[in-house]
């Protein structure tokens, strides 16, 4: 089940959005080199078998990707550029692979490119 798309009620800024994948099984987000600007990706809620590939996440406003409560997450050929905090924040995951991903230009508030 895919829930939530471009939720403009993000607490940190009304101008920024979230793309949420929650309580989903065997879900793939295939970007074909698409660019998402000012959008934070969130994966969680007991999701399993999630793949995100071929996507450019630019200026997400907070974290490029926030992960909590996920089993088997694959990131492939994803660019996280100019996050306000982290390219990826991993809170809780069982099995994660990041392959051929780029984490660049974290802004001064960042604690790192990938932060557990």
Report a brief summary of the structure.
With 116 residues, this protein is an all-beta fold.
Structure report:
This protein has 116 residues and is mainly β. Helices cover 0% and strands 63% of the residues. It is built from no helices and seven strands. It is globular, with a radius of gyration of 13 Å. The termini are far apart.
Helix content: under 10%
Largest sheet: 7 strands, parallel
Radius of gyration: 13 Å
The helix tally amounts to: 0
| Fraction in beta strands | over 45%
Mean pLDDT: 82
- Structural class, by secondary structure, is mainly beta
Order of helices and strands: EEEEEEE
Outline = globular
Low-confidence stretches: 1-14
Gap between N and C termini, in Å? 26 Å
Task: Tell how many strands the DSSP assignment holds.
Answer: 7
SSE arrangement:
Blueprint: E1 17-22, E2 25-37, E3 39-58, E4 65-81, E5 88-99, E6 102-104, E7 114-115
Parallel strand pairs: 1-3, 2-3, 3-4, 4-5, 4-6, 5-7
């Amino acid at each position: 089940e895919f829930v939530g798309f471009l939720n403009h009620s993000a607490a940190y800024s009304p101008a920024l959005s979230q793309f949420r994948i929650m309580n989903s099984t065997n879900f793939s987000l295939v970007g074909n080199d698409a660019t998402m600007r000012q959008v934070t990706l969130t994966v969680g809620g007991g999701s399993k078998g999630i793949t995100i590939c071929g996507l450019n996440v630019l200026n997400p406003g907070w974290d490029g990707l926030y992960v909590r409560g996920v089993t088997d997450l694959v990131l492939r050929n994803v660019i996280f550029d100019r996050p306000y905090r982290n390219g990826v924040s991993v809170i809780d995951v069982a099995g994660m692979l990041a392959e051929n991903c780029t984490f660049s230009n974290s802004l001064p508030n960042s604690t790192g490119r990938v932060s557990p």
